Amino acid sequence: MTLRGKQALVTGAGSGIGAALCRALVAAGAEVMCTDVDAAAAENTASTLGPGARSARLDVTDAAAVQAAVDEVVQRAGRLDLMFNNAGIVWGGDTELLTLEQWNAIIDVNIRGVVHGVAAAYPLMVRQGHGHIVNTASMAGLTAAGQVTSYVMTKHAVVGLSLALRSEAAARGVRVLAVCPAAVETPILDKGSVGGFVGRDYFLQAQGGKPYDADRLARDVLRAVERDKPILVKPRIAHAQWWFARLAPGLMNRVSMRFIADQRAKQAQSRPSTL
Ligand SMILES: NC(=O)c1ccc[n+]([C@@H]2O[C@H](COP(=O)([O-])OP(=O)(O)OC[C@H]3O[C@@H](n4cnc5c(N)ncnc54)[C@H](O)[C@@H]3O)[C@@H](O)[C@H]2O)c1
User: Fold this and answer.
1) Which range (20-24, 97-101, 224-228, 240-244) has the least confidence?
2) Catalytically annotated residues
3) In the chain, what are the domain boundaries?
4) Which CATH superfamily hosts domain 7-268?
5) Among candidate residues 140, 74, 144, 65, the one with its CA nearest the CA of residue 108
6) Rounded to an integer, what distance in angstroms lies between the CA atom of residue 134 and that of residue 121?
């Protein structure tokens, strides 16, 4: 499969991985609709990419707006080949500090946002007889570390949705990929802290190295699309963590408990809440 001439829509395209996906898609010859709840950020991504990129404000929590964005691409280009459900948020910190509003917000963006993308794009792709849905999940969708508990819940949902849909979509000509990176160098590492949690420290210590490059990840994603992979896990070390979690869940849990104890000790001497 080549990406040249393909029609793509990316959510959360104003920053980080979404912006990198847009750059990689245009570099591969695809045409991309860059969307984000932050219209200026989406426009900023598209403005550097020439005529192959357009932009629009799109809040993925608004199902009708997601449907309208998909319809707009189809009206203009005649089809949608690639749907990247990428927008996401994180809350990091002790779970007893999360408000119900924060729980609802992360469910709305990370789960319902992906559901809205699938509900808009999948029936269309079934009618077309082809298409590729790429859901940005996370290593948090394959393993379960504490203090990002609400995030882990949402990303497990995205992995489950992606793998189950993949198994029934194949016979309809539609492909599905779950993207599961560990820490990637994007602004999300510095967002969503509750009660002294420092995402950058947490994720980098969990990963045992520096964050993966977003543009490199985007190229990996497009290669996984071309090869029709079910799951993309990056970096390589994350494969070992994934295997460890599956083969020795009890031991993994004890390692996670010790990790959280270390993190709490650091957080106790750290900054106040950024909320
Ligand atoms: N950076 C990492 O370490 C990492 C690792 C694994 C998975 N992820 C996932 O990658 C995806 C992209 O995250 P990122 O790291 O690029 O973060 P980011 O914060 O740089 O970008 C996220 C983008 O999503 C947008 N967004 C937030 N709420 C939205 C909404 N309701 N509708 C539309 N857009 C919205 C933001 O405006 C932002 O531009 C997320 O799903 C995240 O969970 C990130």
Assistant:
1) 240-244
2) 151
3) 7-268
4) NAD(P)-binding Rossmann-like Domain (3.40.50.720)
5) 65
6) 11
